[in-house]
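ok here's Glycosyltransferase RgtA/B/C/D-like domain-containing protein, seq below lol
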Amino acid sequence: MPKFLTLNFKQKFSDFLKTVFPETKFELVLFLFFLTAYGILGTSIALNYRIIFDDRIPWDAYFSFDNRAIVMTGGGYERHPLANYFFDWLREFAYLFSGGRKDDVFRLVLAWCSNIAISLSLVQLYKYLKNIINLPKKISLLILFFFSFFTTPILLSFTPETYTYTLLFLVLFNYYAALKLRKEEKIPATALALTGIAIGGLTITNIVKVYIPLLFEKQVFRNWKKFGNLVLRVLISVSVFLLLFFYRLDFKVLNLLNKSTQQYEKFSTHKVTPIWDMIVSWFFGGNMLFTSFTLRDYHNKKGFEFKALFMETYSSVLPYLFVAVILSLVIWSYAKNFRNKFVQILMISFLVDILIHTVLKFGLHTSYIYGGHFIFIVPLMIGWLFFSYKDSPKTLSSLYVIISISFFYLAITNVFRMVEFFNFLEKYYR
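and the structure came out like this:
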């Protein structure tokens, strides 16, 4: 191999490692801190309770997560087209430590893989706040720790699900794409193909988010050569994804269409709860701030009965106020930074999920589980709001106070709800 090709490969590999993993000592400290904090939580649950993985419970033991079904099969191919390959590897990796048994060690490995993924996601979030938005460390850390107490990262830190790894891949891709755009570089076809497989392969609707940053490449709609190159890169990425997907289906496309229709009808059924309350309490709020819980009796269709935990809608004014404040900050940030291409990428991505879950109402009644697809947009938009007022000390101070008070309320509420969650585990999942 020519020397310059070897050097080029080494440089790209080095850049890849610096992008994905902690690059500085401080980022390493952050990673180890979250790894320890979430690790204590996940280890306690994995070793003392069977809820992370029970071979008798395929789905819905807590908050509608499908732990066993996802770990054993990767989930339904119509929604998770390539997840079976990823979770086959993850399952075999866990078996290495458990000796092929689905015991507490098996659960522990699954929990720690989730823990590592979420901890890396938080490091990626910090990198975006620091390197893309260029926020001071004090503000970046406030936003980062605020997000670390959201419902989604807490639950996904020990849950073996597609959402766990989707959160990591989406935050990583948004950071990578932002780096490319800031340098006015193209996102290579290889990167698009790989991220399309990783992100779209775990949840098919997310693949569109891979191509959103391409719309903001320099002069892409003013230069036919650049536009043609964009189209070619997208076609290569989509072709690779479809080839792998259809190979899994044995090229029986009609089965996919029929199954997708069935899934939409199943997960879009209207519930008694008003739609506006499902949107506020579950889609927006439930991924940030725990609601109260309710128990339901379930069975696995083979005679085994178990208790399942779900979220209720909010029952007091304060949670609705919290959601209103945070959403107002996001909308304010969007309006203030409307001409910012990085903000547009984030919000268009967010609007994809809003369309799917609140307009089409797919999975709206359990939309508190989908946060891994979009809730990271909230801290990033808050970060951009801070940036837009970098020359206005009074506004910055006000924003800092608002987030600090919100953080205090969020932490108290979610810790209290996690105590309730442990009481549920102690009673039904020893």
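fwiw The mean pLDDT is 93. kinda neat tbh
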